[in-house]
Amino acid sequence: MLSFIASRLARAALTIVFVVTFAFVVLRLSGDPAMLIMSVDAPPEAIVAFRKAWGLDEPIWQQYLAYAAKALTGDFGNSMRDGRPAIELVLERVPMTLAITLPAFLIKICLGIPAGIFAALYRNSALDRLTMMVSVAGFTVPSFVLALVLVLVFSVQLGWLPSSGNDHWQSAILPIITLGLSGAAILARFTRSAMLEVLGQPYIRTASAKGVPWHRVVRGHALPNAAIPTVTIVGFMIGSLIAGAVVVESVFAWPGVGRLLVSAVSNRDLAVVQAVLLAIALSMVAANLVVDIAYGWLDPRLRRGRAQH
Amino acid sequence: MDRADIRDQHAQDQHIQHQQERLVEIRNLTIDFAQGNRLIRALHGVDLSLDRGEAVGLVGESGSGKSITWLAALGLLPGKAKIGGSVMFEGRQLLQAPHKLLDTVRGRRVAMIFQDPSSSLNPVLKIGKQITEALSLHRGLKGAAAEAEAKRLLDRVGIANAARRLSDYPHELSGGMNQRAMIAMALAGEPDLLIADEPTTALDATVQAQILALLQDIRRDSHMAMVLISHDLGVVAENVDRVCVMYAGRLVEEASSDRVFDRPRHPYTRGLLAALPALEGARRRLVAIPGTVPEPWNLPRGCAFAPRCGEAEESCHRGQPPQVSVDRDERVLCFHARYHVDPVHPVPAEPAPVAHVAASGHAVAVIAQ
User: Fold this and answer.
1) Looking at CA atoms only, how far is residue B341 from chain A in angstroms?
2) Mind listing the pLDDT tens digit for each residue in A84-139?
3) CB distance A211–B189 less than 8 Å?
């Protein structure tokens, strides 16, 4: 078990190093921050001075080594725009993002999973068809379209809710609904197919054959098995609590991590982009670890298999 | 009273006795599966009855309708199956019965074990939990009492280290062990009837023989009736009193198991026998039945077996053969049933004991194959 955890942690660390390196190289190859930050008509000497100040005139590998050495001490560089530590900029946005992604996550779980379960239990019924229709609509319609429709209805037509910003707590409602509905649609579909797969298994027939009432077959025999594949997609949703709201935050002008990323990328604020990507990678890796632990807890076949390693 | 009268009287007595001892009576059971807009008939009116303590075998190739007959009887088929006819269990109708009744019959009165024990047990539940669940449902046993009884059942079905096995998961046991655990689970409700649906097909030959011996042993102890479903006529005939041969959703021959072995009447039954290897006597070439079972949506117009039958005549291809009752408990679904009665060995009035069959070469051959 210890060696299992060690190997997982090593892999997680490797993933993060890879993401950081990749972002570092690609960002530096794809454009010159000096031009963007200083504006195009700045005097050439000023641009050269800027490049020198931020170390952009050195070879990429030297820049990378310097960055890595500092990163190990917890220094992830400063924003080129206002000079504040990049990590600080990211951290102050995290609570704002979580303020909409956490409630949205609850909506996904509380709406998506039961909808999927009932759709599977009443397969081909009107309930199933309706759920699947809404679900298909939910994940084929891009979230910014759904967001705009909601704004049109609730802000423009009805005037009930603010269309953007974060001046009132009500401003969070539309972003939360947008994120929650599209996530619930995906989760409903996954849960339904996981449940259908399990309901067709011989051990479900065995449980019925031994006289277990149907509702207990569903609760005691089908759900614990259907939970295993469902955990994968739920884990992915946990991983995207930090990064999953880029589009929605932009549409609603919600000052979260996603919007910070968008503006940092368009400004070529390299340290900030890297810090955001690092935060995203960390949350994804952490979610994957949670999923792995959940697998072991839900599926005894994996639990014992691991112990042997 | 002359001899004929005595025989009639005897037959009548037996009839009355049958009425009291009858456990299951299936009449004209039909199953249709909805496929798109049309219904595909998978079972064409099966009649089958079973007495208390009796062991009946159901034989036929896959797709002949053996398993679905019993799944339908217990309401275990998916909803898209339309079931007709009648299934009486101790005089109570099981078809379209309320869930309440079915839940008291399933597991408690009629238990079922399945072909692939490893996938028929729930992979995320411990063996012990799966057995105690049945114990609490049917015998109200909880906690330590249920645990102790589950251990006793595992002991009974020959699982070594029963106490430890209770906390094992199905994937930690072999296929044979899992089938023993399935049997223990089936015994938990102390059923009157065990339906064993190809219980040994997924197991290797030595384990197969052990499982069959275990089933026989349990039946001797508990006077439990059994339906043994198998594609192997040898396995069936050796373990049951009466054999029903099914083909393409119909029961084509029913007779005592030794009679089926000695004088099969339906050409299909003869085909199944010819395909069995014999351990004793001269070596002979095994004969396979040519072709395959027709698909339910593509049945021939006449007798379903006619296209594969070496003895088919023109009439066989034109219409359904009638069901011929050759003797009191013997039925054949064939145009030529009478024709096949062996004039040299008239049908015995009383079925010979099963032991006779068990001692025959065929049975031994099957165990040893």
Assistant:
1) 40
2) 888 888 999 999 999 999 999 999 999 999 999 999 999 888 989 999 998 998 87
3) yes
Say what percent of chain A tops pLDDT 90. 33
- CA separation for the pair B269, B252 (Å, rounded): 8
Residue A260 sits at the vertex; the CA angle it makes with A255 and A262, to the nearest 5 degrees, is 115
Strand partners, B251: B246
Q: Counting one residue from A and one from B, how many pairs have CB atoms under 8 Å apart?
A: 84
> Topology of A87-307 in CATH?
MetI-like fold (1.10.3720)
A196 Cβ contact list (under 8 Å, min separation 6): A120, A123
Distances (CA, A) of A112 to A106, A177, A224: 10, 13, 17
**What ipTM, to 2 d.p.?**
0.81
- Give me the pLDDT at residue A301, please: 85
pLDDT at A3 over 60: yes
From B190, B211, B227, give the residue that closes a domain: B190
Q: Which residue of chain B comes nearest to A226, CA vs CA?
A: B124
Question: Using only C-alpha atoms, what is the Rg of chain B?
Answer: 21
Going from the C-alpha of B33 to that of each of A91, B78, B205, the distances in angstroms are: 60, 9, 35
B58 and B180 part of one domain? no
Q: Are residues B205 and B254 in the same domain?
A: yes
Contact B122 A208 (CB under 8 A): no
Give the whole-number percent of chain B exceeding pLDDT 70.
84
Q: Indicate which of A121, A204, A210 best probes the interface with B, i.e. most B CBs within 10 Å of its own CB.
A: A210
Work out the minimum CA distance from A209 to partner chain B, whole angstroms. 5
Mean pLDDT rounded to a whole number for chain A: 86
CA distance A216 to A235: 27
Report, in angstroms and rounded to the nearest whole number, the Rg of chain A calculated over CA atoms.
Answer: 24
